[in-house]
Amino acid sequence: MIKQSQGRSAWPVVALLAGAWLLVVSTAEAVLPTQDSQGGMLPTLAPMLDRVTPAVVNIATIGRETVKDNPLLNDPVFRRFFGVPEQQPQQRQTQSLGSGVIVDAARGYVLTNNHVIDKAQEIRVTLRDGRTVDATLVGADPEADVAVIQIPAEGLTALPMADSSQLRVGDFVVAIGNPFGLGQTVTSGIVSALGRSGLGIEGYEDFIQTDASINPGNSGGALVNLRGELVGVNTAIVAPSGGNVGIGFAIPTNMARELMSQLVEYGEIRRGRLGISGQTLTPELAKAFGLEWRVGVLISSVEPDASAALAGLQAGDVVVAVGDRPLKDTADLKNAIGLLRAGTEIRLGIVRAGKPATITVKIEAPAAFWFEGRLLNPRFDGMLFGPIPEDSPLYGKVEGMLIFGVTPGTAGWSAGLRKGDLLVSINRIPVKSREQMEAALKRSGPGVLINVRRGNNAMFALLP
């Protein structure tokens, strides 16, 4: 079982820290750091940690969530037949604890996980020196589980961000966070693996794996190298028994840095697209196509008039690299394209008919296919709907209309609907298009009965 680490909350949580021996890397070779004591020189990481720990903060959030009622109580026919009065949505307060890393002292930007601050109405940050300040949300990306918050920029210490592409398996790392709400804690470990994906934790995965000891409350904390540079943001662990077993995951700083730049600039991630569908190249497919290559992404279709088609990509081509980055599978391609802004030009290394080639493609912006709910019904005022996008982990797995936004104070917000929920049915009629929503709304009575899915949970709500 793979768990995210959110801190204390109403659901399981996980975090990240590391545990092993450490070496400090000097300009010439790896040496043990030492510090004079009464007994002579002893190995220590204390000087590096003295510089680093002030940049790692504790995050506490307060939010509200709708308490799920029995679906029958939300059914107008059931209520009318048995004389049950209309039920008002009940809400309860939620609290959670996590960690964050100050990465820009001048502007007070703190990098953390999206699941640490998700649906929070209040975010409070406690600094290493004991100060507690209110934070504001700059932007968040649920797909990659990255968020940026901002605190008053007074007397802050920031961590420099290293080039995570230079990490190697076996490098020693230190993890810092707030496990179980105990306060700042430091552990150590090594990099166990790189480029981990396909775990089903996030929509975009390119994790650093470490044997760091991860516990609830460490999410969003710092994974640093022995120079005191940030190399990753602690995120999740493999927890078959509910506890740490020495397999933890962190988001690399190169991914976090690019996402953060967009969140700061736009408040959201504006991912581009190529307009292709593909599948991981297998030995069997390679043999069928007469290819010597055994890794890459086989293009199965190209959308007409998409940037890929305009650049000359064809079905049957095998994409083996994006820029200088080799590709192993579709997850690699998704991660590489998902970090690029619309308008960016990239070089794709491909194999066509057994011969290598290079094609330059301009990443295009995804079509704006969402629409305002008020155009269909006044009860949907303040809500944005649209089909499930291709880059969503829900695509091809479930059917419905995705909610792209809900304005606070509206009927939908009061009913507990939030951005990212999936509208499954209206008045008991399944919907997966705007036309089907319009047809289902024609059967509305005193209110609109909707069924919404959130993660593995589902609920009914009545919009009066």
Write the layout of secondary structure elements.
Elements: E1 2-4, E2 24-25, E3 30-31, E4 34-37, E5 40-43, H1 46-52, E6 56-67, H2 76-82, E7 90-104, E8 109-112, H3 114-117, E9 120-126, E10 132-134, E11 136-141, E12 146-150, E13 172-177, E14 185-196, E15 207-210, E16 222-224, E17 230-238, E18 248-252, H4 253-266, E19 276-280, H5 283-288, E20 297-302, H6 307-311, E21 318-322, E22 325-326, H7 330-338, E23 345-352, E24 355-362, E25 371-372, E26 383-387, E27 401-406, H8 411-414, E28 422-426, E29 429-430, H9 434-441, E30 448-454, E31 457-463
Can you walk me through this structure?
There is one protein chain. The protein is mostly beta strands and 464 residues long. The chain has 3 domains: 1-63 and 90-270, Thrombin, subunit H; 276-362, Roll (Pdz3 Domain), CATH 2.30.42; 371-463, Roll (Pdz3 Domain). 14% of the residues lie in helices and 38% in strands. The protein has 9 helices and 31 strands. The chain has helices at 46-52, 76-82, 114-117, 253-266, 283-288, 307-311, 330-338, 411-414, 434-441; strands at 2-4, 24-25, 30-31, 34-37, 40-43, 56-67, 90-104, 109-112, 120-126, 132-134, 136-141, 146-150, 172-177, 185-196, 207-210, 222-224, 230-238, 248-252, 276-280, 297-302, 318-322, 325-326, 345-352, 355-362, 371-372, 383-387, 401-406, 422-426, 429-430, 448-454, 457-463. The strands form 6 sheets. The chain has a 7-stranded antiparallel sheet. Strands 25, 26, 27, 28, 29, 30 and 31 form a 7-stranded antiparallel sheet that branches. Strands 13-14-15-18-17-16 form a 6-stranded antiparallel β-barrel. Strand 9 and strand 10 form a beta hairpin. Mean pLDDT is 79; it is low at 6-31.
